Amino acid sequence: MDIVNELKDLRVKFDNQPGNKLVPEFIKASFIKLGLQTSDIQSVQPFKSLNINGNDFAVFDSVDNTNTLHKAIQTIADAIGRNAYLTKQAARSLGNLQHTDNIEGITANFFKQSGIPHTGLWDLQRKYEQKGDDYKAIIKADKAFANRVFDGVGPFKIALNDFFKMNNQLTVDKFDRAIDTELTIANSKNRRKMKP
Questions:
Q1: Backbone phi and psi for residue 94, each to the nearest 5 degrees, phi listed first
Q2: Of the four listed, 70, 123, 124, 187, which is most buried by Cβ atoms within 10 Å?
């Protein structure tokens, strides 16, 4: 497996696609390390961080009806194929991130912690749609999050923020070492060839 060449091939494929590409952090970090263009690359980031009962949650929303975690994997697969090493690593990095789809529970807890009385998500949804005093309190607590949740942007994925950050860093470090190893081997082969 030649990670450097696969990364360069991915960059070439991206050059032939218009618009910004959503990718896992390790792809962007690897492009930077190799001196490849990153102006059209955006790494996956949570839409929102929510602190509930002392736990810091990262909320990932959707693009084109696909959760951003899966959209980043799909971006790689569409460019270089589902069986490519980078696609498999993207799936391992983001697809296996421990998360919950329980947006109802997280949302209900977040707004309850924000001081808005309710009996659950559906009660919050009703209050949001009625645009009364409770609506104002919901918007005051977090307008962007409320708009996304109650206007049906979904599907959401929610992970502990520390797990997401640690997962990103471990994968970036793994690829950083792999690229260094490949470049060192390639340089030593070139030096041997150059000797008279």
A1: -100, -40
A2: 124
